[in-house]
Amino acid sequence: MKEIRVRFAPSPTGYLHVGGLRTALYNFLFARKNNGKFILRIEDTDRNRFVEGAVENLINSLKWCGLNYDEGPDVGGNFGPYMQSQRIELYKKYAEELINKGHAYYCFCKPERLQALREEQEKQKLPQVKYDKHCLNLSKEEIQRNLNDNKPFVIRLNVIPNQKIIFNDIIRGTVEFDSNNIDDQILIKSDGYPTYHMANVVDDHFMEISHVIRGEEWLSSTPKHILLYEFFNWEKPKFAHLPLLLNPDRSKLSKRQGDVAVEDYRAKGYLQQALVNFVALLGWNAGDDQEFYYMNELIEKFSLERVNKAGAVFDLQKLNWLNAEHLRKLDDKILLSMLKDFILTTPYSNLNYSDDKLLKIIESMKERVTFIHEFVNNCKYFYEPPKEYEQKSVEKNWKEDTHIHLIKFKVEIERIENPTKEDFEITFNKIVGELNIGKGKLIHPLRLAVTGQSTGPGIFDILAILGKDEVVKRIEKAIQDLNQSK
RNA sequence: GGCCCUAUCGUCUAAUGGUUAGGACAUCGCCCUUUCACGGCGGUAAUAUGGGUUCGAAUCCCGUUAGGGUCACCA
Predict the structure, then answer these.
(1) What positions does the domain Glutamyl/glutaminyl-tRNA synthetase class Ib catalytic occupy (predicted)?
(2) Which chain A residues 204-243 have CB under 7 A to strand B?
(3) A122: confidence class by pLDDT, cuts 50, 70, 90
(4) What is the pTM (predicted TM-score) of this model?
């Protein structure tokens, strides 16, 4: 059997769109699953849209997601170059071949004529605006004269009318188009660069791409590509058009309604494992109930046949859930290094906490966070004394005699050298026993005093992590602040 | 508007002619826990619509409706 070769072929717009990520991922999974090759090709044939650093950025995002390619602009390969801007001569050569065969022709029409034509056709309420094949009738001599005069030209595909163009899509089945609805597409622009259609077909052929897996927005231009393959007499790849990713209002996923760039999600603290896992499930499932996947499991189970046809809404809540799931499965040592990296970006960067202390924070918070940054932002009391006290909890838990209970607890704690979690708990039980009060009467004020909050890990974990001196200080401060304000 | 694609809980989806239409996220309730979370148990919630075909339709066919894509010297 022929080797499976697939490609991700983005145009460098400046960032990797999550829809692009999903396309890249399915290509990658399909290649890995079938022991094929995954290729990155950059479609940079629009000189007007050149963005500085866009390719580097794209590659960064791809690699961050673990989508390593076998061939590409920065890794090389036997089918390069992998930047279309470096393959211009190839496209020209094959466009000329098409002209010689009568399947394409020079067009010297000025933009003004095209504009007028378009307006005229719209005025006539024609179902579709199409080029009128005006330049197809130019004589050989005329064409040669125009070329000699250096008149600007484009090369157009010569579509034959009244033909059915039928192809099979792996995801959608048989799709049929009428050639009457297909315009004489420009293949080579007046600046000598190819359009998408030309470059794409030529490259897919010479890069020996076996399966074209791309977004549904390409479905309606596929007949043009089919025509090209047929005119060249080249073997066609198999096609698979993926359903689109949608906004919550079911329009095509767009910047206006949230983040679309992979780097945005990275910056917000999403794990690459979670993003990949989530995006994989938008439009595909293995047919079982598994939803939590690592990359290797996705590779094992992926198949194009199980890709859905309908568009999928990008639902942040489910992504958040998956992020929390993946975070919890991460080894504490890895979480530690991620947390340290994050702390560097906060005002607490000079605290120099020991790994041991941070590990304890991680352990106590792990079940309570969705993002790494929450190991800091949801429990700032581990890093600094509370600046304020949650009002609702103060009202509910800070009573007339609360400070008396807390002082008794504090005094008792002060006597112990290096109290452990158990010491705190034993002392606590002793005090509530002596005072003959319910545990809640002390536990909630204590939490409020040392954290300023009403939620968080077990109180004795917090006390142990904070340590005796800090606990004592915070109790004193809380009594001062809260009794005063009452 | 022409052409093309699509249609199961709010969302992601399972069920490829016979199921009380299943799971997950979200949501609600209970349990666990004197906090919050995690976890466990349970609830609300879907086959867009009208016709066929069939003993039997979410599933096959046709129409309607709705949504999306595409109609550039952008990809």
Answers:
(1) 3-321
(2) 216-221, 243
(3) confident
(4) 0.94
